[in-house]
Specification:
Blueprint lengths: L2 H33 L3 H18 L7 E2 L2 H11 L10 H18 L2 H4 L4 H18 L1 H4 L15 H10 L6 H20 L5 H15 L11 H4 L20 H37 L5 H17 L6 E2 L1 H9 L5 H18 L9 H14 L3 H10 L1 H13 L5 H21 L4 E6 L2 E7 H5 L7 E5 L3 E2 L1 H11 L7 E5 L5 E2 L1 H16 L3 E5 L6 H4 L3 H7 L3 E2 L2 H9 L1
Parallel strand pairs: 5-7, 6-8, 7-9, 9-10
Antiparallel strand pairs: 1-2, 3-4, 3-5
């Protein structure tokens, strides 16, 4: 890229970079509260990840950040067992980065992204539930450290704590939350391009910065929970933990790897989906593997600098495009503007942000995560998937949401396998040596006639998944019929398929059904594995093609 192109990109992308930076600073502070990390960790993570992605990622538009989908995962980890486990979040970034890097070098990205898209959308709904319910205490003023209300890993336990301390609700905090939450909802619907989050943040920080606390009622501020806020581009990523025995070490390694694996999978899925959204909006292609490489290096780099795991964020990516971003320069400028604004204002300005306002911002974000159109599509097209989505979302209140990713994926795959195993082979029916119809085997069995000639074709791979159902169906063929089994489209047969095909031939021959094999060329090694092959060959029941079999049988 020459100097002219650099200047041109700077001119055409500075507005998008500034817009995304202005939005992300208050959002980073707000979501830090929901993840168990500090506000500075979120802000600096965004700065470094965008810089690395600008050099190594493929998409010109993807915005890398600590995504909302990761916040509940990080919070669950941060609340596990020891109070200082939040210090291990940079280790999660490093380990997940190396997992993503291994996936890149092994070239198995396509298998990770084969997970049903409904899994990710369901996870976003669970994130919405986690974020929304997690902000109730802040909206009611119950997150005040003076109340000594214990924060639990489980959502339902936190709801129980709120119910138990309901008499301590701060009415002022609730009114501030309610009024400005309604304001955010209203402006999002009526004025979608209005930067309501930025305006709201500036207004309330200014109020508490310039107005004496003796005049306004006391509301919990960010500085009350994070009194030692200070700006820094680097922190030591390898904390010291109090470890008593080898069991503690094993427990830490187990939790770090498990959480990192989930983070890696979610990060890859959301990054690819975000890039695809950008591709649809701009008609500019991206390279999937290079995008994953950029994601891996971003996580490793931010982790080594002491910050958090990242992924591309499709809502921020869409904002980047709508704000006029046309090149990676927009992401790089977002990092620069975020750095400048944070360095100037973080220590003495953002600490005056009230928690009820943070709760209002997060509740507004949470509602934005609900994809109503997807839920309608699921209800109309896949009611089973819709029901499972609702059930698992409800159960995520009682059990860690990340487990449900695996459970939901497993259930979905079982449903898919069930559909595959119940697929019927197609048969062409000949009566009185004339072709009559082409239907599924199951449909033919309802109206089969004596002396019919049937040509049946299997798919490319005959295996344990698709053979059992067809065996049970074929056994219902009546005697005195002729069956031609076409193997022309079969490229391979596993052990179960070989045994099943032999069983079919033996069973049908015993039931006085003439069986013939067609398309059994010698170059297909899988055909010679059949036990019945030699026997049928001796009886002149093996033909090179279906057309040859039909021609000779008609004589």
């Amino acid at each position: 890229m020459n100097t002219t192109e650099i200047i041109s990109n700077l001119k055409s992308n500075w507005k998008a970079g500034l817009t995304v930076a202005m939005i992300n600073i208050p959002l980073s502070i707000s979501l830090a509260v929901a993840s168990g990390a500090t506000p500075l960790q979120w802000i600096i993570t965004a700065i470094w990840s965008w810089i690395i992605a600008a050099f190594f990622a493929s998409s010109n538009y993807n915005v890398f950040w600590v995504a909302w989908a990761l916040s509940s995962i990080l919070l669950t980890f941060a609340l596990s067992h020891w109070d200082n486990w939040a210090m291990l979040l940079p280790i999660i970034a490093i380990v997940s980065g190396f997992i993503i890097l291994a996936i890149y070098f092994l070239k198995i990205t396509k298998y990770i992204t084969l997970l049903p898209s409904t899994v990710l959308h369901w996870f976003l709904i669970s994130v919405w539930v986690t974020i929304a319910l997690g902000q109730i205490s802040g909206a009611l003023g119950l997150n005040n450290p003076a109340l000594w209300i214990h924060q639990h890993e489980e959502i339902y336990m936190n709801l129980y704590e709120i119910f138990k301390h309901i008499s301590s609700i701060d009415l002022t905090s609730f009114l501030v939350f309610a009024i400005w939450f309604i304001f955010l909802i209203f402006t999002k619907k009526r004025f979608p391009n209005f930067p309501a989050v930025i305006i709201l943040t500036i207004i309330w920080i200014s109020v508490w910065l310039w107005v004496n606390n003796w005049i306004l009622p006391k509301i919990l501020l960010l500085s009350d929970k994070f009194p030692a806020l200070s700006f820094s581009l680097f922190q030591f990523p390898f904390p010291s933990l109090w470890i008593n025995n080898i069991k503690d070490i094993v427990e830490i390694i187990k939790w770090v790897f498990k959480t990192s694996l989930v983070v890696a999978i979610i990060a890859i899925l959301e990054t690819i989906i975000s890039a695809r959204i950008a591709e649809k909006m701009t008609k500019q292609k991206f390279r999937k593997n290079k995008e994953v490489l950029g994601l891996a290096l971003s996580n490793i780099w931010t982790g080594l600098l002491g910050w958090l795991p990242v992924t591309a964020v499709f809502i921020r990516t869409a904002l980047n495009i709508k704000s006029g971003g046309t090149h990676k320069t927009a992401g790089f400028l977002t990092s620069v503007f975020t750095l400048i604004i944070s360095a100037l204002l973080f220590n003495g300005f953002f600490k005056f942000l009230p928690f009820p306002i943070i709760a209002a911002i997060l509740m507004n974000i949470a509602i934005g995560l609900i994809d109503i159109s997807l839920l309608k599509k699921l209800y109309n097209l896949e009611k089973t998937a819709f029901a499972i989505t609702l059930i698992t979302t409800f159960l995520s209140v009682f059990w860690e949401p990340t487990y449900w990713i695996l459970i939901w994926t497993t259930i979905t795959l079982f449903i898919y396998i069930k559909k595959i195993t119940n697929l019927d082979a197609n048969v062409s029916v000949f009566r009185k040596w004339e072709f009559t119809q082409k239907i599924s085997l199951h449909s033919y069995l309802k109206d089969q006639k004596k002396w019919d000639l049937i040509l049946m074709k299997f798919s490319t791979w005959l295996n344990y998944l698709n053979i059992e159902h067809n065996i049970s169906e074929i056994r219902h063929l009546n005697q005195d019929q002729k069956l031609i089994i076409s193997l022309a489209h079969i490229s391979n047969i596993d052990v179960d398929g070989i045994e099943a095909l032999d069983e079919i031939v033996e069973t049908l021959e015993n039931n006085w059904v003439d069986v013939y094999l067609a398309g059994a060329r010698e170059d297909k090694k899988c055909i010679s594995k059949l036990h019945c092959h030699k026997d049928l060959e001796l009886k002149w029941k093996i033909f090179k093609s279906s057309s040859e079999a039909l021609e000779k049988l008609k004589r």
